[in-house]
Design goal:
By secondary structure, the chain is an alpha/beta fold. The chain folds into two domains: 171 residues, 3-Layer(aba) Sandwich (Rossmann fold); 185 residues, RecF/RecN/SMC, N-terminal domain (Glutathione S-transferase Yfyf (Class Pi), Chain A, domain 2). It has nine helices and 15 strands. A hairpin with a 2-residue loop joins strand 1 and strand 2. The longest helix is centred in the middle third of the chain and has 37 residues. The radius of gyration is 22 Å and the shape is globular.
Length: 365
């Protein structure tokens, strides 16, 4: 899988851009706030349907312009495709695949990407939401039906929570929860089974990467933690959820929210038997995050037959020399990679890479 060409019109600080890319490594250098990250954002946007930096499409349109376009030509399984995003201020964006309009939910899995940014270094120490999102994005790209099921589950939880609030305010009867509970249990079982299957495979891949990065000195283990479960991964998920919802109905009504389900689960990371979040050093945590990202690449490859496109947004300066060397050795000649950096000296003797200088929304090779 690779991105061949990018066209931008009135996108962020780019008035007009047409550029083709190296199938191996593409490195964008320049001072801060010149437009380097905007390139990676545009690729991520087309792959995932939204920016990783904003939820507001209006912010993607160049200042004082009314419309903008992102157009990407890419190859998947040697088939050429074009994805186009059209933005008009204060209107819903239009998405086209090879000239035909599609919905955002149909994007996932067409162009697979893995993004690694400095914010991802908080993946270990941050809130469970970050780790759930990491896992959901990984599985969704490899298995688009999972993404559609996730959207359905989120709608069910939203509707159930709205009903809980009405019951709390005595504007609805608690008996109405039964129908939503049934839907919630059915959807939750599908999601958790797929997550457990993915984590089992991901655990193996992450440990292999971690052992390479640490010279076989450390083992990384990844576990799935179900909210509300007294035991790890109950054998009968449907029975577990039904029982929990019944026993905690009053607590849910009091909170006005659903206290158990895939939306509250977490990933636990252990290095040599110790909780990485609690006991890991900063160096161990950074190595753990890098191991997760490399494992994500391998997981998507094992599920789809192709490596995803890798986006490294200003992350090289956050890694020490050893981790940078391991990362570059892993991706070279097999994974198309886009890298942003302020300092070109971080990439000595890289004749296999294509370098771009970014200055005020203009790119020069």
């Amino acid at each position: 899988m690779r991105v061949d060409k990018l066209v931008l019109r009135n996108y962020r600080n780019y008035a007009e851009l047409k550029t083709e890319f190296n199938k191996n490594i593409n490195i964008f250098t320049g001072a801060n706030a010149q437009g380097k990250t905007n390139i990676l954002e545009a690729i991520y946007l087309v792959a995932m349907g939204r920016s990783h930096r904003t939820f507001e499409d209006n912010e993607l349109i160049k200042w004082q312009q009314q419309a903008g376009i992102v157009d990407i030509s890419f190859k998947r399984q040697d088939m050429e495709n074009v994805l186009t995003f059209k933005f008009i201020k204060d209107q819903n964006k239009e998405i086209l695949l090879n000239g035909n309009t599609i919905k955002s939910k149909d994007l996932i899995g067409l162009l697979n990407v893995v993004l690694f940014s400095p914010e991802d270094l908080a993946l270990v120490k941050g809130a469970p939401l970050l780790r759930r999102r990491f896992l959901d994005i990984e599985i969704s790209q490899a298995n688009p039906p999972y993404y559609r099921q996730l959207l359905q589950y989120n709608r069910i939880i939203s509707q159930r929570n709205n009903l809980l609030k009405k019951i709390r305010e005595r504007k609805a009867d608690a008996s109405l929860l039964e129908a939503w509970d049934e839907q919630m249990v059915k959807s939750a079982v599908v999601l958790v089974n797929k997550r457990l299957e993915a984590v089992k495979k991901f655990n193996m891949l992450a440990n292999l990467m971690h052992r390479k990065l640490t010279g076989n000195k450390e083992n990384l283990a990844v576990y799935y933690e179900m909210s509300g479960a007294q035991e790890q991964n109950p054998a009968d998920l449907a029975a577990f959820y039904k029982k929990y919802l019944q026993e905690n109905q009053q607590a849910d009504i009091f909170r006005g929210s659903t206290g158990v389900g895939p939306h509250r689960d977490d990933l636990l990371l252990y290095v040599n038997g110790e909780n990485l979040k609690t006991y890991g050093s900063q160096g161990q945590q950074r190595t753990g995050v890098l191991s997760l990202k490399l494992a994500e690449l391998e997981f998507i490859k094992s599920e789809t037959g192709e490596y995803p496109v890798l986006l490294l947004d200003d992350v090289m300066s956050e890694l020490d020399g050893s981790r940078r060397e391991h990362l570059m050795a892993f991706i070279r000649d097999k994974i198309q990679t886009f890298i942003t950096a302020t300092d070109i000296t971080s990439f000595p003797e890289m004749s296999f890479a294509k370098f771009y200088r970014v200055t005020e929304g203009r790119i020069m090779e």
